[in-house]
């Protein structure tokens, strides 16, 4: 600041010298030019400058010297210097300090007329320009009550520049100088003002303004208000004011917490050599004990493992059983989805074409039942469960004498799950026949090709037989062809009968753990005594091939033989036949009693024939030739005149004697003729469908069309009669037509023959 | 006779000098205890003739590893009654004749 002030002082000096209006202080050059013009004027030169002067007459002062031309032309040289001759050079002043007169230094040539410092700066000055550039604003201050100091400055500058003989440079300099002066002065003023402000803490702004006004009134340039137009004010960097604020002080608080000291414990002991020794001894002993225990445990552990394994197996089995049911349901559901159409047909489809066909019907193939592991055995028996109408047993064996397999099986299928059997029982020999107990539908008796019989319980572990005939004497010596449960014994023992090729009929009673065997009869051939080589007699036996119990009299049964004979026997007499029918020329494969009239039975044979018999009548009532060996024949459960037969050619024949006495009303090839032979057949007890087994282990189910199961319409007058009576009547009516006896034949009355 | 024969065997068995570290008392957690035992054994084996040095080493190591103010006593015969920060004490025998006690108390 101070240096700057000095500098401005210097400038001021120069300015003063320039401004100087007294002729003594003017420059030499100026004087010269003035004198020149004077000379020219004096010379009377016709100049443009003088053109506007009217009078050319020179006015001469009275006291003007008359000079000669030479004198006038003489040049008088006069030198002007900057040294002021009027200044006293040797001024002395008494100095009390030195107690002597001291020469006062010579004053300069300058005379200070006025000196003023300012804090404002000129708007055109470099400093202002720089500030404007920096702030990016136009340096015009806000209009205020006191007016803009810069404007004032400008006024002042212009006032100054109005000096009569000053060039432009001078003007500018003067302006800047003045502005600076003004600034400095304002700075001083402000400083003063601020001092005042500091003194009077918190004084109103108005007061400050008043102070400024006062400053202005004192002749100083207007000062910018310290508060207003802050942004736009171009600041002289040496002019600053300090501003401060005090914020609200928050009250103080003290909060302290103290943590819980860590828990401490106490411990004490004495370390002595014998203590150490004892500790070691104890520890060693303990270790030894533990080692022994471990060894023991290891031994025991193995046992545990074995036990655990057993337990696990048992658990798994239990679990499996638990899941088995769920899985079975799932399997059934899946099958139901897969075979949905067949299932619908099975229950609901009725062949509409039957209405337009007279005396003819069709068989609709439904599911085929297979067990994958058995493909080459033939179906040797088919039987519906008496309790669950849709469950049936299929026996797998072989009729071939030469190619007997050493395995057999009995499977229980249900129509609800055609893809896989519900029960599978494997045997070591081909199963030839089976029977399900009527009151205990879980007991299954089977006869096998090797002559042994077995009883299985399906409710429990059905893979092992409940009873099995063991030993040489406890079984048939040849293939067991048919097996039938008999009515319970007097003391409630369950028993069954079996017939075999060895010509014997056994009764098997189920004891606690074993069978009790009784030979019911031995089928001796009449006139079958052959003389042996040494005069011995050999009693020839006929070979039983099928057996059927009388439906109403449990003592009476029919036996079919390989010789083609049918014996009517009674359990009561083992040595005598009640009746012998000379029925067929080849093996009788099946005998079946009519469901409605127990005097009527049917038989089929390998001699292609199916014959319908009446009790005690040696001649058949009907004979049908089916063109190939007939494997099975069964009466229908729903009609007294309908029966079905299957042949080796793969055909199923359905007869309704009421409709046609001579021809079948349906002949249908079920399996390919060349490849497959049909072996067995069974009617469902409740629904109009049959199952047919072939020699390739396949069971086919067939639905009977409406024409094959015509019911009897009750006559108008006898509407009250039920179907059963009507069926019986129908059969009787039919029989009466064919009963015309040959001449001189007398029907032997037997106790079982019921009068019709 | 049989007894006489058996006795010397027992005697011989008893004379076995056990040198494995035997923890007499400790409430440290497993990890800390294992480390402390290891370290104590190492120190005692290294400075088997200078128990003071061994104790110093153990103390310094424990201070570094488990925080400051551990106290260690190594010796063949002494009695003590200390209060310690729970879960921070180990009292073990080592080498058959040496007791090492370390506890923390800050």
Defining key terms:
heterodimer, A: 756 residues, alpha+beta, Methylamine Dehydrogenase, Chain H, 3 domains, 4-stranded antiparallel β-sheet, 10 helices, 33 strands, 26% helix, 25% strand, disordered N terminus, B: 106 residues, Protein Inhibitor Of Neuronal Nitric Oxide Synthase, 3 helices, 5 strands, 43% helix, globular
Overview of the structural elements:
- The complex is a heterodimer of chains A (756) and B (106).
- With 756 residues, chain A is α+β, with helices and mostly antiparallel strands.
- Residues 1-45, 142-172 and 182-230 of chain A have low confidence and may be disordered.
- Chain A folds into three domains: 2-43 and 70-217, no CATH class; 284-338; 361-738, YVTN repeat-like/Quinoprotein amine dehydrogenase (Methylamine Dehydrogenase, Chain H).
- Chain A is elongated, with a radius of gyration of 75 Å.
- In chain A, a hairpin with a 6-residue loop joins strand 5 (378-384) and strand 6.
- In chain A, 26% of the residues lie in helices and 25% in strands.
- In chain A, the strands form nine sheets. A four-stranded antiparallel sheet of chain A has the order 4-33-32-31, covered by helices on one side. Chain A has a four-stranded antiparallel sheet with strand order 5-6-7-8, with no helix packed on it.
- Chain A starts with a helix and ends in an 18-residue tail after the last helix.
- In chain A, helix 5 (149-161) runs antiparallel to helix 6 (168-199).
- Chain B is α+β, with helices and mostly antiparallel strands.
- Chain B has one domain: Protein Inhibitor Of Neuronal Nitric Oxide Synthase (2-Layer Sandwich), CATH 3.30.740.10.
- Chain B contains three helices and five strands, in the order H-E-H-H-E-E-E-E.
- Chain B has a four-stranded antiparallel sheet with strand order 1-4-5-2, covered by helices on one side.
- Residues 1-9 of chain B have low confidence and may be disordered.
- Classes of the chains: A alpha+beta (756), B alpha+beta (106).
């Amino acid at each position: 600041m101070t240096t700057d002030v000095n500098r401005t002082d210097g400038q001021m000096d120069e300015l003063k010298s320039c401004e100087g209006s007294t002729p003594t202080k003017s420059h030499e050059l100026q004087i010269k030019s003035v004198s020149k013009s004077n000379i020219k004027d004096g010379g009377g030169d016709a100049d443009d400058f003088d053109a506007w002067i009217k009078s050319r007459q020179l006015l001469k002062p009275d006291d003007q010297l008359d000079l000669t031309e030479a004198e006038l032309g003489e040049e008088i040289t006069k030198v002007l210097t900057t040294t002021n001759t009027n200044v006293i050079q040797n001024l002395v002043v008494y100095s009390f300090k030195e107690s002597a007169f001291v020469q006062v230094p010579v004053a300069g040539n300058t005379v200070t007329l006025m000196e003023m410092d300012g804090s404002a700066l000129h708007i055109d000055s470099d400093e202002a320009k720089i500030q404007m550039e920096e702030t990016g604003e136009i340096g015009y201050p806000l209009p205020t009550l006191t007016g803009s100091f810069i404007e004032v400055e400008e006024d002042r500058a212009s006032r100054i520049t109005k000096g009569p003989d000053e060039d432009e440079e001078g003007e500018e300099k003067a302006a800047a100088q003045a502005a600076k002066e003004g600034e400095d002065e304002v700075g001083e003023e402000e400083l003063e003002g601020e001092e005042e402000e500091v003194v009077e803490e918190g004084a109103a702004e108005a007061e400050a303004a008043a102070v400024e006004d006062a400053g202005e009134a004192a002749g100083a340039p207007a000062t910018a208000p310290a508060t207003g137009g802050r942004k736009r004010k171009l600041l002289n960097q040496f002019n600053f004011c300090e501003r401060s604020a005090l914020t609200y002080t928050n009250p103080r608080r003290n909060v302290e917490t103290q943590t819980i000291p860590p828990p401490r414990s106490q411990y004490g002991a004495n370390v002595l050599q014998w203590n150490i020794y004892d500790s070691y001894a104890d520890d060693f002993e303990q270790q030894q004990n533990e080692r022994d225990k471990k060894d023991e445990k290891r031994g025991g552990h193995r046992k545990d493992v074995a036990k655990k394994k057993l337990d696990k197996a048992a658990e798994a089995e239990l679990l499996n059983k638990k899941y088995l049911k769920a899985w079975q349901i799932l399997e059934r559901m899946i099958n139901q989805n897969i075979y949905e159409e067949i299932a619908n047909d099975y229950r609901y489809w009725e062949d509409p074409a039957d209405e337009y066909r007279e005396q003819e019907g069709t068989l609709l193939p439904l599911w085929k039942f297979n067990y994958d592991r058995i493909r080459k055995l033939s179906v040797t028996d088919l039987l519906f469960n008496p309790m669950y109408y849709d469950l049936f047993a299929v026996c797998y064996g072989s009729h071939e004498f030469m190619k007997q397999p050493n395995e057999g099986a009995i499977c229980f299928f249900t129509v609800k799950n055609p893809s896989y059997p519900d029960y599978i029982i494997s045997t070591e020999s081909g199963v030839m026949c089976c029977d399900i107990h009527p009151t205990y539908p879980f007991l299954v008796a089977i006869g096998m090709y090797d002559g042994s019989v077995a009883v299985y319980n399906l409710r429990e572990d059905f893979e092992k037989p409940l009873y099995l005939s063991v030993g040489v004497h406890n079984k048939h010596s040849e293939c067991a062809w048919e097996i039938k449960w008999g009515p319970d014994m007097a003391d409630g023992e369950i028993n069954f009968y079996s017939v075999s090729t060895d010509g014997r009929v056994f009764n098997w009673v189920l004891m606690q753990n074993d069978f009790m065997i009784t030979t019911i009869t031995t089928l001796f051939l009449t006139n079958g005594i052959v003389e042996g080589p040494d005069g011995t007699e050999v009693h020839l036996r006929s070979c039983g091939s099928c057996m059927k119990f009388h439906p109403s009299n449990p003592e009476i049964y029919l036996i079919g033989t390989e010789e083609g004979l049918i014996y009517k026997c009674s359990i009561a007499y083992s040595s005598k036949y009640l009746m012998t029918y000379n029925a067929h020329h080849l093996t009788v494969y099946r005998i079946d009693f009519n469901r409605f009239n127990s005097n009527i039975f049917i038989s089929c044979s390998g001699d292609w024939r199916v014959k319908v018999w009446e009790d005690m009548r040696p001649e058949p009532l009907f004979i049908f030739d089916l063109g190939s060996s007939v494997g099975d024949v069964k009466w229908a459960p729903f009609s007294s005149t309908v029966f079905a037969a299957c042949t080796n050619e793969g055909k199923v024949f359905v007869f309704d004697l009421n409709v046609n006495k001579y021809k079948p009303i349906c002949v249908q090839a079920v399996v390919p003729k060349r490849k497959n032979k049909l072996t067995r057949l069974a009617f469902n007890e409740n629904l109009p469908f049959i199952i047919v087994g072939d020699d390739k282990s396949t069971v086919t189910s067939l639905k009977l069309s409406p024409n094959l199961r015509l019911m009897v319409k009750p006559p108008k007058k006898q509407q009250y009669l039920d179907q059963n009576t009507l069926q019986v009547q129908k059969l009787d009516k039919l029989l009466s037509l064919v009963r015309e006896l040959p001449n001189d034949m007398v029907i032997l009355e037997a106790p079982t023959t019921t009068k019709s | 006779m049989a007894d006489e024969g058996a006795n010397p065997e027992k005697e011989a068995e008893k004379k076995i000098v056990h040198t494995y570290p035997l923890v007499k008392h400790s409430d440290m957690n497993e990890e800390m205890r294992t480390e402390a035992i290891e370290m104590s054994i190492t120190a005692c084996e290294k400075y088997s003739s200078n128990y003071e040095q061994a104790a110093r080493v153990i103390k310094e190591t424990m201070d570094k590893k488990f925080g400051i103010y551990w106290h260690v006593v190594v010796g063949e015969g002494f009695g003590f009654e200390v209060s310690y920060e729970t879960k921070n004490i180990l009292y073990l025998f080592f080498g058959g004749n040496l007791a090492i006690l370390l506890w923390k108390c800050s």
